[in-house]
Design brief:
This protein is α+β, with helices and mostly antiparallel strands. It has helices at about 70-85, 145, 150-155, 170-185, 205-210, 215-230, 240-245; strands at about 1-10, 20-25, 45-50, 55, 60-65, 65-70, 90-95, 100-105, 105-115, 120-130, 135-140, 160, 200, 250, 255-260, 265, 270-275, 280.
Length: about 280
């Protein structure tokens, strides 16, 4: 898969990194202009990365009623382990979860990217240390290269869910699926308590934020739905709500384009996903 490689540093002081998003500063900020997007950057040339192919539990998801989070044990562990893997340690945060210090203050790294998402975040595979390839050039990214990235590490350790979008090529997707399968077989991280496929009984927002480990995309839709309904936990209208949100996806095994609502089951108050994540490819929105 052809991607652009960019050399730079990871810096997190003053930001709120989580398990699948971190700030990156190219050695040459002009290289952001080579990324289809555009990439939204700050005055110092840094931009937020969204790690491709993975979705970690939410640490501060914005809703109309304020920020909410998923169970913090796994959400914070994913954020801590991402920074540690990138070689940023002794990270301190304030009461708003903003990073106030790290050792070192920046860590050398590189990214592989094909573009930015609708929010201006650069969608990327994140590598650490010196780049094996020249910066600012298009390169072929294979499975071996992906296995050396934070994206693969987070899945292999059970710190994130595999969540795929259209631009990711099948061979790289297969590598991430294998990493997830290994984490599941060893009961690592989120797979110790995942309820995405067995079902979560929704009795209110607190259960989702404090104890229920589920796929973040499903969590976000449930949280938005509950806030929209002023906390009323009835799931009677949830599938209709999902249909109106119109999150489009492709089911690989059936070759069918459809909506997120068609792969979610609601029985009374219990909500679950009916199709394996590795069988789904979402449309970017």
């Amino acid at each position: 898969m052809s991607m652009l490689v960019i050399k730079g540093t990871y810096r997190v002081i003053g930001s709120r990194p989580d398990g699948d998003s971190v700030r990156f500063y190219p050695n040459n900020p002009a290289e952001w202009d080579l990324v289809p997007g555009p990439v939204r950057r700050n005055v110092k040339g840094g931009a937020q990365l969204r790690l491709d192919g993975i979705d970690a539990l939410e640490t501060h998801y914005p809703t109309r009623a304020g920020e909410v989070h998923q169970p913090l044990h796994f959400a914070q562990e994913a954020a801590q382990m991402l920074l540690k893997w990138l070689r940023l340690e002794n990270v301190t945060r304030d009461e708003r979860d903003t990073v106030t210090g790290s050792v070192p203050e920046e860590a050398e790294g590189y990214i592989y990217t094909r573009g930015a998402d609708v929010h201006g975040r650069c969608v990327a595979f994140a590598g650490r240390g010196p780049s094996p390839l020249p910066s600012g050039e298009g390169v072929h990214v294979d499975v071996a290269a992906v296995e050396q990235t934070a994206n693969y590490f987070q899945l292999r350790e059970g710190l994130a869910y595999a969540t795929f979008y259209r631009k990711l090529f099948p061979d790289l997707r297969a590598a991430l699926i294998e990493a997830t399968a290994q984490a599941k077989s060893e009961n690592r991280g989120i797979w110790q308590s995942d309820l995405t496929f067995s079902g979560i009984k929704v009795e209110g927002l607190q259960a989702l934020t404090e104890s229920a480990t589920i796929m973040p995309k499903l969590f976000r839709r449930l949280a938005d739905y509950l806030v929209l309904n002023d906390g009323d936990p009835s799931m009677a209208g949830f599938l209709d709500y999902l249909a109106k949100r119109d999150d489009r996806l492709f089911i690989i095994s059936t070759g069918h384009w459809t909506g997120f609502d068609t792969v979610v089951n609601v029985t009374d108050q219990t909500v679950k996903l009916t199709t394996p994540l590795e069988d789904l490819v979402f449309e970017e929105r």
